Amino acid sequence: MRGTWAWVAMGVAVGAAARPARADEWTLDEAIRVAVQRSHEVRMGDLEREKAGDQRMSALGQMGPKLGVSGKVLRWDQGTDVNLGFEIPDPVKQQLGIDLPSSMHVMDQTTGDLSFTVTQPLTPLLSLYALYRVQGDAEQAAMAARQTRAQGVAYQVAEAFFGLLKLRKARETAEQARAQVEAHLKTARAFYDQGYVQKDDVLRAEVALARVREGIEQVTSGIEVTTAAVNLMLGRPMDEGLTPVDPCEDPPPPLDGSLEEALERAYARRPDVREVSHRVEMARAGRLAAIGAMLPTLAAAFNWTRQWGSEFQRKTSYFLGGTLQWNFWEWGAQYHQVRAADRDIARALEAQAAIRDLVALDVKRAYTQARLALTTLETARKAVTQAEESHRIATKKYEQRVATSMEVLDAESALTGARNSYHESLYSYYLALENLKRATGEREVGR
Predict the structure, then answer these.
(1) pLDDT per position as a tens digit, 217-260
(2) Between the CA of residue 12 and those of 204, 233, 353, what are the distances in Å?
(3) Contact between residue 241 and residue 24 where contact means Cβ atoms under 8 Å apart
(4) The pTM is what?
(5) Of 394, 387, 422, 396, residue with least CA distance to 409
(6) Are 151 and 441 in contact, with CB atoms under 8 Å apart?
(7) C-alpha to C-alpha distance for 332 and 330, rounded to whole angstroms
(8) Please, which pLDDT band fits residue 6 given cuts at 50, 70 and 90?
(9) For labeling, which of 63, 161, 162, 369 is most exposed (least CB within 10 Å)?
(10) CA separation for the pair 307, 318 (Å, rounded)
């Protein structure tokens, strides 16, 4: 139990969790939903997905035209005038019909300009589109990784939930055993008072009753610890009351389909399979970006400028054109970047094959464990029937003084063990079904 719940002690969730209809009763689905919402690991997965989404939008924005504005205002020590070095007499000016001053104003003391620019990358669009694909698949991969974490949390909750149900059933069985041992002790004392049995019959029954009571205390302690663990998963105070709603019926549902069908569902639904598929697509888009980097950089440009304070420049001007830049020889640098991208694709495909192998093994293990748990449950059910009959016979024989107290107590111990084994097998089968849901990716944990 320590190994199962040790991770819970790493931190205590803050605030109150969303509650079911009754504050102290929780179904398994409700517990999983709340635990997933409050899981720090799942929250980190959400942040990673949101980050990847922002990076995807950033990559999309780089594909469009870029608008820019620039300007400046300058204050000089003084304006600028140019002296022509001569002066034309007024009669000559009148005769020629011109008015030429002896000096000209060139620049004001305050000058400035304002420029508006539009640039549109053309050939870089290939690399930019590849980057957009990379970030898009990164977002999908992050979403799948978040689902994997959520399904892991869901199974941990299911493990704790069924563990708590097992302990509560064990306490019920122990209470039944105590009632039966107390009844046997009462009979043994009556027989002893009448001289039918020896003192050791009474003492043996008293010791058995003390052991049953000790077992009840141990189980109760286990219930308290496991309840605290479940409460922590749900973001509740450790000592708050919690009653798990038992979803386990007997006979339980059979296994759904064959092993081959379970494998097909796992390949189609498991989030880690989807994650590695998106990482393959990321590697392929990265290769496309590396190819795009080998192309010449061609961009269209437009500029509009307005200036003031200077007499030798046009007040308003604009141009439309393009720019070209190409590093046509880099000693194979870009070529080897493409080859490196090919290696990334090959590595991603190997990872995809490896995860499929791991998924196949995980599903087979989960399926065979569920099948074994179902067989064990059928055996345990028969063992309870046999132990109940043996206990009934031993009790009747003792009442007729043809059996010993040891035989009755042994039958009682066997019955208690059979009942505990039955409940252990029942809950283990349902937990195995949850594990199979996890292995096939069928456990719903929200998005």
Answers:
(1) 999 999 999 999 999 999 999 999 999 999 999 999 998 889 99
(2) 47, 8, 39
(3) yes
(4) 0.80
(5) 394
(6) yes
(7) 6
(8) very low
(9) 63
(10) 12
